Amino acid sequence: MTGRVSGGGHHVVVVALENVLALDIGIPWQVFGSWRDGPYTLTVCAERPGPVPVHGGPALSVAQGLDCLASADTVIVPGYLEPDVPGAEVTAALAGAAARGTRMVSICTGAFALAAAGLLDGRRATTHWLYAQALARRYPRVTVVPEDLYIDEGQVLTSGGVSSGLDLCLHLIRRDHGPHLANQQARLLVAAPHRTGGQAPFIDLPVRPEPSGSPALYDWALRNLHQPLTVDQLARRAGVSRRTLIRRFHTDTGLPPMRWLLDARLARARELLESGDLTVEAVARHCGLGTPANFRTLFKAHVGVPPRTYRETFNSAAVNGR
């Protein structure tokens, strides 16, 4: 990756930060740099020309510095390991490109670099779900939406983790040239032209409290999810008032008791769908999620896909039996 990849007039510049993720930088290279006579030209640049460490692959030899952003139509920042504030030269170059009207794009944790440059302030944005809370804490002016595969805010676009960067790159082609060309490139990459469901099916639902909490109460609740548990029942079990219980749950988990119970039931349902062959009716019963219809509605609303689709995606027996 030493210079431009020949192509059409739209210049895509990929900024390789230190410890760039190999998969993330490979996505725009494949999508925009694999055309023979296509509509895009791709350049990889770095803060300074030379070798750039890559997480998950050999170092890149990069010939271009940040000055090539001046000719960019689209700038893409792939994810990088342990995202921190990039150097002042990087943030200034990103901010300068945006000020010139350049389209700014991030894949995975590349959103941290855009946020550091102030490009996500007042906007909705996403990143890998594992880093979403960190992004929201570090940049409170950004509305972080961890469930989405990608978010298009016009000039600024962000994607979730790894493969959702491919979804976003195909979306850029679709936006620039229509669905036919995007679908053609998707077929060449053996990828879905458009995916639904977001990152929600991949996000862990943490249901155990911090060690400072009341583990006996939470463990008891987790063992009795099949029962129609109520706040009053939990309060009696803990030997405290209803108000004290609600306050304790907020302290331990950051959630009201009934929301914590719902997350625990959904987490259990996901485990059963991933590892067993119980019917949807049986899973709903084991998790205390009511009728099968109610279970399907709740599961899709919070996880993003129906139970059957989730099982087909994450259950090894179902996957191997396809």
UniProtKB/TrEMBL annotation:
GO MF annotations, alphabetized: DNA-binding transcription factor activity; sequence-specific DNA binding
Signal peptide range in chain numbering: none
InterPro entries referenced in this protein's UniProt entry, alphabetically: Class_I_gatase-like (IPR029062), DJ-1/PfpI (IPR002818), Homeodomain-like_sf (IPR009057), HTH_AraC (IPR018060), HTH_AraC-typ_CS (IPR018062), INH-QAR (IPR052158)
Pfam families: DJ-1_PfpI, HTH_18
Domain HTH araC/xylS-type: 215-313
Keyword line: DNA-binding, Transcription, Transcription regulation
Coiled coil: none
Keyword Thylakoid in record: no
Matching PANTHER family: ARAC-FAMILY TRANSCRIPTIONAL REGULATOR, HTH-TYPE TRANSCRIPTIONAL REGULATOR RV1931C
UniProt name for this protein: HTH araC/xylS-type domain-containing protein
